[in-house]
Design goal:
Strand content: 25-35%
CATH superfamily: Gcn5-related N-acetyltransferase (GNAT)
Number of strands: 7
Distance between the termini: 24 Å
Mean pLDDT: 87
Oligomer: single chain
Number of domains: 1
Order of helices and strands: EHEEEHEHEHE
Largest sheet: 7 strands, mixed
Helix content: 25-40%
CATH class: Alpha Beta
Shape: globular
Structural class: alpha+beta
Number of helices: 4
Length: 158
């Protein structure tokens, strides 16, 4: 049994510590939504984590998804995304601060298939001009991709 929990800003050190223990750095803003995946009865070390950052036009950007090194290949990333979709739906329907049902991510190109298994769809660069997508998120994507990062643009309609 695994549970995804939303970490309140006041407890952000728990979230940050997970990243540090996996030799990764992360910054957390007050407006970010931070989730940890806890396995078993919830007392063990977290197995995975993810952060959503809100962008200017009210959409959310999935950032910094991480599965603990010792837990990779055990399905925790899949479990995290499966449970997150339900949690984000609940948050969007009950919390005015989570006012968008559109979520985006910029996965490394080799991870696009993983995200597509969980309801994300890849948007090709030539289709980004559509009115369907957040202009702020497109600008961020272009800023990253012009730095030579091998990333893709993905959208997740919850």
């Amino acid at each position: 049994m695994s549970d995804v929990i939303l970490i309140p800003y006041s407890e952000r050190q728990r979230f940050i510590q997970f990243y540090k223990s996996n030799r990764e750095k992360i910054k957390v803003q007050r407006s970010d939504l931070c989730f940890l995946l806890l396995a078993g009865d919830g007392t063990a070390s977290p197995k995975a984590a993810v952060k959503f950052s809100q962008v200017a036009d009210g959409c959310w950007l999935l950032r910094n998804m991480l599965v603990a090194k010792e837990a990779r290949g055990e399905g925790y990333g899949h479990t995290l995304l499966e449970q997150l979709r339900d949690q984000m739906r609940q948050l969007a329907s009950s919390n005015p601060e989570v006012n968008s049902t559109a979520l985006y991510c910029f996965p490394w190109s080799e991870l696009v298939g993983f995200y597509c298994q969980h309801g994300f769809h890849q948007v090709m660069p030539e289709d980004l001009e559509s009115e369907l997508y957040s202009k702020e998120v497109i600008a961020r994507y272009r800023a990253y991709s012009t730095r030579g990062l091998d990333i893709s643009f993905c959208c997740w309609d919850i």
